[in-house]
Amino acid sequence: MSNQNLSEPHEQGELHRSLSNRHLQLIAIGGAIGTGLFMGSGKTISLAGPSILFIYLIIGVMVFFVMRALGELLLSNLAYKSFIDFTTDLIGPWAGYFVGWTYWLCWITIGIADLSAIIYYLQFFNNGLPFSPVEGAMISVAAIVFIMGLNLLTVRLFGELEFWFALIKILAIIILIAVGLWMIFTGFTSSTGEVASFTHLWANGGFFPTGVHGFLAGFQIAIFAFVGVELVGTTAAETKDPARNLPKAINSIPIRIIIFYVLALLIVMSVTPWNKIDPAISPFVNLFSQAGVAAAAILMNLVVLSSVMSSMNSGVFSTSRMLFGLSREDQGPKAFGKLNRRAVPANALYFSAACLLLGAALQYFVPNTVEAFTLATTLSTILFICVWLLIIWSYIRYYTTRPELHAKSTFKLPGGLFTCWITIIFFIGMIYVLSLEPDTFKALKVSPIWFIILIIGYFFFYKPRHKK
Question: Where's the Amino acid permease/ SLC12A domain (predicted)?
Fold first, then answer.
């Protein structure tokens, strides 16, 4: 894709810029508070202990670097609408093809993980009893149909829904922090005799009680907790005044990480010692249960469910926009590039929803929701790392081949190329870390299948159509 083509006026049938600053800010926050935090943090705590606080800080810094690179790239040419545009322009058509389809699969796998989470949390209202495989599949289908129906309406409705979903999550975590602090400062004693205290953070083996291996093992779910933070990049084409609103959303990431991850989990592990937290139960729901506030525990469970639905909503939105972009770049079926009268890529939406139905099948064949969740989240983590690495690679190309654009940028990536290489080394290291645990290694072993499919698709279907 050339800059000239990117700068041409919009033709009829383009996406509309309907998302305001408040939508973008809350979408960015909501993207950072996902299923991985609510459902996966219990397992991460059991693996890493209090060192989880350092894990989230480290990942948060690296993700922030990716987002700053993404922001500078998108603002360097406002005709860039998504990752597909700048990867195609800066690296080549194969990169746009790879990142577009991989990001699409990222959100499909997240959607499948979310279906597992929905079923898991609904068990709370089923007296804690697991659903049968058929019931799990039916719940999955109902969730997919509901989310698809919402996304068939206007993008502004999507923005409003994500605004309120995110607001609910923010308020829930703030309330959790407040209740947790009250429990700590009043010396609350749980039914098991544990007194809430900050000393729990170091009194049970120190900050690294499970050693280096446990510390590294905690990264998988922790990385998954951050996926979706780049959603602001896929909404760029539908955001009003991106030059003003995008930097605001991205620069708010560090404070969000400190409040919603580090502080919240610090409170959780101060109320309940890390080695007493059940990895199969959300520590957020458990904190209110420990406090003996049954109604609050029910409410928190509903909040967690809304968080999962928010994640699915974002995922379906993202997949449809990626397919739309791929189609417009002639890297996907033409039908995906058509908009309905509400300016929604309906065909792309239908296809993504149909693929999500595979998640319903997974619930049937893998009724163990925790196992299904781990498989889906690990695969998603691997794919997201690949997308993030391509964003950084695009930035390196931009930095070296278009220095004039970088020079006049008002939203530069701190550290430039040095930051890029640190980020690349870190995420490549994370792929190695995924091989250390048996449950995550399963997904790592099957991930090359997707890349083989992409290679076949590119060289045998896409490239032959573009030979001159």
Answer: 23-463
CB atoms within 10 A of CB 378: 26
State how far Cα 272 lies from the chain centre: 27
Task: Please list, in sequence order, all residues whose beta carbon lies within 8 angstroms of the beta carbon of residue 89, skipping any fewer than 6 positions away.
Answer: 1, 2, 3, 6, 77, 80, 96
Higher pLDDT, 300 or 402: 402
Structure-block tokens of residue 341: 């009268």
Residue at 110 is within a domain: yes
Say which residue the tokens 């620069």 belong to: 251
Q: 271: how many CB neighbours lie within 10 A of its CB?
A: 28
Cα separation, 219 vs 280, in Å, equals: 17
Share of the chain above pLDDT 70, in %: 81
How many domains does the chain divide into? 1
Residue 302 falls inside a structural domain? yes
The answer to whether residue 85 sits within a structural domain is: yes
Lowest mean pLDDT among 17-26, 107-116, 399-408: 17-26
Residue with tokens 């609103």: 245
Cα three-residue angle 60-65-71, rounded to 5 degrees: 120
Cα(415)–Cα(154) distance, integer angstroms = 39
| Position 462, amino acid | Y
**Sequence letter at residue 238:** E
195 DSSP β-pair partners: 189
pTM: 0.82
3-state secondary structure at position 189: strand
Cα–Cα dist 227/105, whole Å: 13
